[in-house]
Amino acid sequence: MLSDANPDTGALLLCRAAPETVTAAARLLREPFRCVAAGDGWTALVPGTAPWGDGGDPVERVVAGWAGALAVGGQWAVVALWWDPDHSGFLLASGFRRPVGFAWLAAGTPVGEDEAVHTFALRLGLDPVLDVQALEELARPDSAADARARLIGVVAVLARTGVVLPPGLAPGAPLAELWALAARYEVAATHGWALPVRALSMAQLALGVPMTAWGLRTRRGPWVAAGAVLLASGALGLRRTR
After folding, report:
1. Which of 29, 89, 96, 98 is 20 to 30 A from residue 124's alpha carbon, by CA?
2. Are 231 and 204 in contact (CB under 8 A)?
3. CA dihedral 20, 21, 27, 31 (to 10 degrees)
4. H/E segment holding residue 181
5. Are 45 and 26 in contact (CB under 8 A)?
6. Per-residue model confidence as pLDDT tens digits over 185-212
7. Is 23 within 8 Å of 35 (Cβ atoms)?
8. For the chain, which residues make up each domain, given as ranges?
9. pLDDT tens, 91-109?
């Protein structure tokens, strides 16, 4: 529960899709999320639980799983922002591509490869000069900017793509505060949620069948596993919309 979670650890997911579509897809993660419009063509997801607590996986691994599932299932880009007392970072998941990310120690010391920010900019269609320069500055040592300031800088760069977070909804804040704040801006679910879920489920099944078959034919276990996940998720989604 949020009340038991470390207030200095949290996450925020930015999905490049409309709120109604993201709301439907987030239901398949089986975790409570509040869905907030975050600018032109973007949606923010605020988690209502902290599965990285109690000795579980670290926050960056948890959000990587969420982002990957949303990106594969919905075929849109997902930027995961995460933080804990020791370090903070971001991760971009898009389709079946390998996720790319960067991190900083709490004091702002960069931990990652510069090439990651270039790939990040390329996949999101950022300006190859101005935006890349801004990201490169964030990836350089700067004693005046801690890890939280770096994440806020990343959001500022994403503003060039249309990202506009509601007032107060910023990376680095306690997760309980973000959860309460998101309630003010939450996009209300409507009876039409079943239609996006059904469409998403059909897409997952359409991807899962050939992926599983190809994995079995070429004896590639990871692809078989990924296909099985898509098939199971798609079947579950169809069952839930009946």
Report:
1. 29
2. yes
3. -90
4. helix 175-185
5. yes
6. 887 544 455 556 666 676 766 777 777 7
7. yes
8. 2-185, 192-240
9. 999 888 889 999 999 999 9
